[in-house]
TrEMBL record:
Main location: membrane
Gene transcribed to yield this protein: LOC107684965
Official protein name in the record: Progestin and adipoQ receptor family member 9-like
Superkingdom classification of source: Eukaryota
Organism, scientific name: Sinocyclocheilus anshuiensis
A Gene Ontology molecular function term of the record: metal ion binding
Binding residues annotated for Zn(2+), in chain numbering: 101, 286, 290
Membrane disposition: Multi-pass membrane protein
Length: 371
């Protein structure tokens, strides 16, 4: 590793350079071993790797806390199917992002594929979030029968008594129809649109690529957050549930705040824009972007946990008596099946763009090897 000096932006192909980052580049012909070793040496990608690799362990710690709650079902209980899918979505995002920054110097073709996969995992994460929102924050969400495993007999009787007080909906509203029939399909469709758009920015709209990639993910955010928007605008929590409601709202607003800050870092390229060359290794905008996106995910996780705990303890704290009966419980097909189908579509999209990248960059890569 020490025999491979870091290069300036003028010494590497234009495809490899980043705006206002003048030095610290690895030559795009590294071996796998050299890429792995570079994680422990200061390059302009070292901070990008660690700011998404270390958060994996922080997220896992907060995620696993749910299974230590008193009265919680077993981790394999169907009640947790959406939660596990959310975990997989976040894990894929953090792991793919960190590896993309670590391995992208192996070749120009591998660099393109790394970031195609990175965009795909962001799309998968948004659908994982949608599944969690659908079953835990959905206006009709509640504990189905399969979720009662961790509750004692007194709690079950109380919940069954509350079931009788919930009237059925004779005329569902447009919101209810959207939630029941179109919410998850819309989330998947938007995720596919996002990965296609982001992959296209590798060739098109290069001048505005950071703005396009950032803004395009506003669409899945608004679609996946629809249940939260509905809850915040339509719910009238009782005094007993006011604390839970305000806690959920606080986490959501913080989640939005960190997303906005991360978007500003990604688009503005601050601070390196004002001092090119001084933030090449540490402190440049993409590292701050990573930190802020993870903080937004952490607040999102806490928001979901608040709703899960409310459902496990007493669904009436979340549901209004005017709401229709609860949703059917999560199944393997409605959670893992959705994610598996989406991953298949994403894999096909990545394969198509990867083949296109191979055709474009294979000749240039041969020249680099000769050089």
């Amino acid at each position: 590793m020490l025999s491979l000096p870091l290069l300036r932006h003028t010494d590497v192909p234009p495809r490899v350079t980043e705006n206002f980052i003048l030095s610290g580049y690895r030559f795009p012909n590294y071996s796998l071993r050299q890429c792995l070793v570079s994680a422990f040496h200061p390059t302009n990608e070292t901070g990008n790797f660690w700011t998404h690799f270390l958060p994996i362990f922080v997220f896992a710690f907060h995620f696993l806390e749910v299974f230590t709650w008193e009265g919680a079902p077993e981790p394999s209980n169907p009640f947790f199917y959406p939660f596990w899918n959310y975990f997989l979505g976040v894990l894929y995002l953090l792991l793919a992002s960190s590896l993309a920054h670590l391995l992208n110097s192996m070749s120009l073709i591998i660099r393109e594929i790394c970031f195609f996969v990175d965009y795909g995992t962001i799309s998968a994460y948004t659908v994982g979030s949608s599944l969690a929102y659908y079953y835990y924050i959905h206006p009709q969400a509640g504990i189905p029968e399969i979720g009662f495993g961790g509750l004692n007999s007194t709690q079950r009787k109380s919940l069954n008594a509350n079931d009788e007080a919930w009237p059925s909906a004779s005329s569902p509203t447009q919101f209810q129809l959207f939630f029941e029939s179109l919410y998850i399909p819309s989330s998947c469709l938007v995720a596919i649109i996002c990965i296609i758009t982001c992959c296209n920015t590798r060739q098109c709209w290069r001048r505005y690529r950071y703005a396009v990639r950032t803004l395009v993910f506003l669409l899945p955010f608004f679609v996946s957050s629809t249940p939260v928007f509905y809850r915040l605008s339509a719910s009238s929590p009782s005094s007993s549930s006011l604390h839970l409601f305000s806690t959920m709202a606080a986490f959501f607003y913080r989640h939005c705040f960190w997303l906005v800050v991360s978007a500003l870092f990604n688009i503005s390229k601050i601070p390196e824009r004002f001092s090119p060359g001084n933030f090449d290794i540490w402190g440049h905008s993409h590292q701050w972007f990573h930190c802020c996106t993870f903080l937004s995910i952490l607040d999102e996780l806490q928001m979901i946990k608040v709703e899960m705990q409310a459902l496990l303890l007493n669904p009436t704290l979340v549901l209004s008596p005017a709401m229709p009966p609860r949703l059917p419980g999560p199944t393997l097909w409605s959670t893992y099946g959705v994610m598996l189908l989406l991953q298949g579509c994403i894999a096909c999209i990545i394969a198509g763009f990867g083949w296109q990248a191979y055709q474009i960059y294979a000749p240039e890569q041969k020249k680099l090897k000769v050089h």
